């Protein structure tokens, strides 16, 4: 009965293979670290001017809710303006072609104008259609005297991007830190800024898509 | 050996059928949307199916990208999704974190410029997930669980579809406005039920960070969210911390998930004494034009009941 023979065979490249493995691990770690550190972890606060506020970062819960409701009302307001303008022209009537606050609240039930639990929670803001000129395409909805702590006053300015443009136009929303501020008499950017109004800038879905997918896919 | 052959045969057969299906799809639907044909619109989540169905009516065809019973939180794309993607002209997406799997499917099928992507949230002003205690603000992607943010998306989708299909643009716009009015009236019905109710004592937490937009439009706030991240269950330490937060904030109602129930909710209820209610995440059931309105009513029924219960408790001597 012969004793089994055993012997350890060390490959000639043993040391080189270990070194190669270590280098590979190191390279992978470096790549992973570089990727993680370069990847945006959170949305950058948009580059805002000192007369602007971020709806995402800077507003309290009440102001944020009012702002979001106002922003959503913009499309409907432009469409209603189009309807009213067409009807007024057809009937040869020279009348304001923007819906009144009462129409928005009672007939169209458009927030934040609608008088309901939400408006109560938002401090019973007093809204008025502060100016409306049928053919210049400018309307302003002004809300103030909200009763919630740290609540602002609000100004929704609807304006044509350029004269003769269609109804898919823009709007700007401004906030004033004094909820009892009176209606501004001049609705122009410089004048509003001088009088303490700040324009609110949304962190929109388009911005988030851009952050998630990169510039190519951003909407 | 027999098992191995059978398995290999099944894999080969499955692969061949997928490839065949793809080739057939490429041959027969290179650009499905031709002159005089209906636009074929794909949707990712249930609410987007409802939105698009109400905007287009019979003027376009709808193709849900994934099966109706799929959970959008942990979805893994299937071959059938790729086949569906090959047949559509435009895909309506959430795009801000709730249907990332759709982009995996898109990567698998490089259709380049011939497939239009419509980002429903482009115009929505986003808010952070509630109850983050001042830590890093994280975008809440659940814009589809509310009426105000839903209406903004309906408008965006209608405008986007109108650009792709100008002949029907006016109809899409008018339908979108009618649908928006209908959604606002649903909300108004529930607002009316709360007109005399004191909301000052109502403080809630949610299992899933999905209901910030819904609460916002009622002027309510979420004090804490149990999930530390979207779709992730808390570990023991995180749970203990959240229970402390709930107690500290005097939370009296916890909203769980109607379709994704968690055993943790009972644990939290036992530890804090909160009342439990469940919201619909709107991502379950058959795709239908009515789903969004039906589930919105269900959620608002739940919210009104929860508020009423707190109000009743507070009024007790």
Structural notes for this entry:
The complex is a heterodimer of chains A (219) and B (317). In chain A, a hairpin with a 4-residue loop joins strand 2 and strand 3. Chain A has six helices and six strands; from the N terminus they run H-E-H-H-H-E-E-E-E-H-E-H. By secondary structure, chain A is an alpha+beta fold. In chain A, strands 1-6-5-4-3-2 form a six-stranded mixed β-sheet. Chain A starts with 13 loop residues before the first helix and ends in a 6-residue tail after the last helix. The longest helix of chain A is centred in the middle third of the chain and has 30 residues, at 61-90. A four-stranded parallel β-sheet of chain B has the order 2-1-3-4, with helices on one face. Chain B has a four-stranded parallel β-sheet with strand order 6-5-7-8, with helices on both faces. In chain B, helix 9 (264-272) links the parallel strand 7 (253-257) and strand 8 (275-279). The radius of gyration of chain B is 22 Å and the shape is globular. The chains are: A alpha+beta (219), B alpha/beta (317). The interface between A and B is large, with 42 and 46 residues.
């Amino acid at each position: 009965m012969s004793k089994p023979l055993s012997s350890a065979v060390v490959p000639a490249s043993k040391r080189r293979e270990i070194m190669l493995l270590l280098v590979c691990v190191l390279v992978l770690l470096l790549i992973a670290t570089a990727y993680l550190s370069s990847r945006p972890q959170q949305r950058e606060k948009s580059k805002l001017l000192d007369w602007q506020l971020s709806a995402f970062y800077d507003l309290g819960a009440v102001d944020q809710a009012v702002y979001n409701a106002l922003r959503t009302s913009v499309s409907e307001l432009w469409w209603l303006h189009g309807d009213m303008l067409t009807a007024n022209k057809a009937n040869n009537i020279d009348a304001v072609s923007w819906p009144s606050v009462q129409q928005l609240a009672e007939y169209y039930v458009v927030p934040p104008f609608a008088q309901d639990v939400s408006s109560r929670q938002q401090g019973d803001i007093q809204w008025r259609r502060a100016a409306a000129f049928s053919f210049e395409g400018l309307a302003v909805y002004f809300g103030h005297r909200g009763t919630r702590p740290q609540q602002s006053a609000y100004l929704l300015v609807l304006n044509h991007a350029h004269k003769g443009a269609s109804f898919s136009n823009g709007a700007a929303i401004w906030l004033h830190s004094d909820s009892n501020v009176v209606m501004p008499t001049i609705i122009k950017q410089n004048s509003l800024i001088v009088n303490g109004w700040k324009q609110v800038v949304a962190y929109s879905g388009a911005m988030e898509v851009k952050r998630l997918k990169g510039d190519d896919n951003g909407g | 050996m027999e098992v191995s052959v059978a398995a290999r045969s099944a894999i080969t057969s499955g692969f061949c059928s997928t490839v065949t299906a793809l080739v057939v799809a490429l041959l027969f639907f290179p650009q499905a949307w031709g002159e005089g044909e209906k636009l074929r619109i794909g949707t990712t989540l249930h609410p987007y199916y409802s939105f698009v169905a109400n905007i287009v009516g019979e003027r376009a065809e709808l193709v849900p990208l994934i099966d109706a019973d799929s959970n959008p939180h942990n979805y893994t794309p299937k071959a059938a999704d790729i086949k569906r993607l090959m047949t559509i002209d435009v895909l309506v997406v959430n795009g801000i974190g709730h249907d990332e799997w759709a982009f995996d499917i898109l990567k698998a099928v490089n259709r380049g410029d011939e497939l239009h992507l419509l980002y429903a949230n482009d115009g929505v002003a986003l808010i952070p997930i509630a109850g983050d205690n001042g830590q890093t603000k994280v975008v809440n992607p659940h814009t589809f669980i509310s009426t105000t943010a839903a209406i903004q998306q309906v408008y965006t989708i209608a405008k986007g579809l109108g650009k792709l299909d100008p002949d029907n643009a006016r109809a899409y716009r008018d339908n979108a406005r009618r649908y928006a009015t209908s959604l606002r009236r649903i909300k108004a019905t529930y607002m009316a039920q709360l007109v005399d109710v004191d909301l000052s004592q109502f403080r809630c937490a949610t299992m899933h960070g999905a209901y910030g937009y819904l609460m916002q439009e009622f002027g309510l706030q979420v004090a804490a969210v149990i999930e530390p991240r979207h779709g992730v269950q808390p570990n023991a330490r995180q749970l203990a911390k959240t229970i402390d937060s709930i107690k500290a904030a005097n939370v009296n109602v916890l909203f769980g998930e109607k379709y994704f129930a968690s055993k943790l909710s009972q644990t939290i209820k036992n530890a804090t004494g909160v009342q439990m209610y469940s919201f619909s995440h709107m991502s379950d059931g058959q795709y239908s034009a009515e789903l969004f309105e039906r589930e919105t009513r269900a959620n608002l029924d739940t919210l009104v009941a929860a508020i009423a219960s707190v109000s009743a408790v507070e009024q007790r001597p």
